[in-house]
Structure to design on (326 residues):
C-alpha cells in the first residue's frame, strides 16, 4: 500500500494533504473530504449557478480539479480556498457527461450530450479540437498511450479517436442501438470494458503489436447487473472491475489470466442508485457516490464500508480520488 493511502489512520492529528477525495452533487456543491476521518474539509458552493455537477477529474499533479457542470467545465485550484474557478470552458450545447485530464496535465477532454468531444488547452484556456461523435456522448477515456480517446454513446457505439487528427479509427456496436453507458481502459492498455443500459459488460483485448493503432479483439461479455448500469471501472492493477448500478449495489469482478471475469463480491449499503466510483492507487479501496446523498469508502478485501461521507443534500452523482504520487 502506498505511503499516502486512503486507509484510515488511527493516530493522525491532521489531514493527509496528499490524498485528494472529492464528491459532486445535484445540490450544486463540490465537497473535499478527509478520507480517513470522513470530515468535509472544504465546500465549493454554487447555489447561484444553474446546473448540477455531473463529473469530476483530478489532474495528475493534484493541482487542479475539473468539474463538469451542466454545459460547461470549471477548473479549480485544489490548494486554494476560493470558490472561484481559475478557468471556465464553455462551448458545449448539451450536458457535459465526461471529463478527463491528459497525463501531463496540459489539456482536458470533455464529452457531451450535444454529440461532440472537445479538447481544451489548459495553458491558454482555449478549445484545441472538436470531434463530431454523431450521437450524445455518455463517457470518454484516454488511452494510456495518450494518443487516442475511447468514447461511448447513446446510439450504442464505442469509438476510437486519433488525437493527432480529427478522425475516428474504429466504431464498435456490440449490442446494436442499446446505449453504452460507460467505458474503461486498463492502465497498461491491455483491455477495454464497456457497460450498457441493460447491465451487460463487453470486453475487448487490445493488441498494439500488429499495427500503428490498437486493434480490438472481442474476448467476452457477461451480465453484470439486471438493472441500469451507471459506471464500470477497471482497478489500477487490472485485477478487478467495479460495476455500479440502479440496483443500489456495486459488484466487484476478479479478472483471470485468460480475461475471464468472475463475480467476487457485492458491495451493499447504499439505499439508492450508485452513480460513480473511484479506486485508490493501490486498488485496495473503492469510493462510491449514490443518490442516497452519501459517498462511501469500501475496503476491497472485506467488501465492508470503512468510512462514510455525509453532507450533500441531494444525490451524490460523481466522485474523484487521487492518493498516488502527484
Amino acid at each position: 500500500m502506498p505511503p499516502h493511502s486512503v486507509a484510515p489512520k488511527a493516530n493522525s492529528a491532521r489531514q493527509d494533504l496528499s490524498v485528494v477525495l472529492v464528491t459532486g452533487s445535484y445540490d450544486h456543491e463540490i465537497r473535499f473530504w478527509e478520507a480517513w476521518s470522513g470530515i468535509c474539509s472544504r465546500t465549493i458552493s454554487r447555489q447561484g449557478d444553474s446546473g448540477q455537477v455531473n463529473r469530476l477529474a483530478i489532474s495528475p499533479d493534484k493541482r487542479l480539479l475539473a468539474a463538469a457542470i451542466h454545459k460547461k467545465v470549471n477548473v479549480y485550484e485544489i490548494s486554494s480556498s476560493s470558490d472561484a474557478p481559475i478557468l471556465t470552458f464553455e462551448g458545449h450545447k448539451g450536458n457535459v457527461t465526461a471529463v478527463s485530464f491528459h497525463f501531463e496535465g496540459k489539456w482536458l477532454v470533455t464529452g457531451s450530450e450535444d454529440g461532440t468531444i472537445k479538447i481544451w488547452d489548459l495553458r491558454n484556456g482555449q478549445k484545441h479540437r472538436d470531434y463530431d461523435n454523431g450521437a450524445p456522448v455518455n463517457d470518454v477515456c484516454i488511452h494510456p498511450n495518450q494518443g487516442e480517446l475511447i468514447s461511448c454513446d447513446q446510439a450504442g457505439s464505442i469509438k476510437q479517436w486519433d488525437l493527432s487528427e480529427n478522425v475516428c479509427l474504429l466504431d464498435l456496436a456490440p449490442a446494436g442501438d442499446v446505449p453504452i453507458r460507460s467505458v474503461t481502459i486498463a492502465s497498461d492498455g491491455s483491455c477495454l470494458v464497456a457497460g450498457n443500459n441493460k447491465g451487460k459488460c463487453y470486453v475487448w483485448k487490445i493488441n498494439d503489436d500488429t499495427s500503428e493503432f490498437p486493434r480490438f479483439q472481442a474476448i467476452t461479455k457477461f451480465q453484470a447487473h439486471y438493472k441500469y448500469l451507471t459506471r464500470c471501472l477497471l482497478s489500477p492493477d487490472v485485477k478487478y472491475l467495479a460495476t455500479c448500478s440502479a440496483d443500489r449495489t456495486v459488484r466487484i469482478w476478479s479478472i483471470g489470466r485468460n480475461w475471464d471475469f468472475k463475480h467476487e463480491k457485492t458491495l451493499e449499503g447504499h439505499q439508492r442508485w450508485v452513480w460513480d466510483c473511484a479506486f485508490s492507487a493501490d486498488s485496495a479501496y473503492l469510493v462510491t457516490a449514490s443518490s442516497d446523498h452519501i459517498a462511501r469508502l469500501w475496503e476491497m478485501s472485506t467488501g465492508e464500508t470503512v468510512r462514510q461521507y455525509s453532507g450533500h443534500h441531494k444525490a451524490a452523482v460523481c466522485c474523484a480520488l487521487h492518493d498516488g504520487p502527484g
User: Anything to note?
Assistant: The mean pLDDT is 91. Residues 298 and 305 are 4 Å apart (CA to CA).
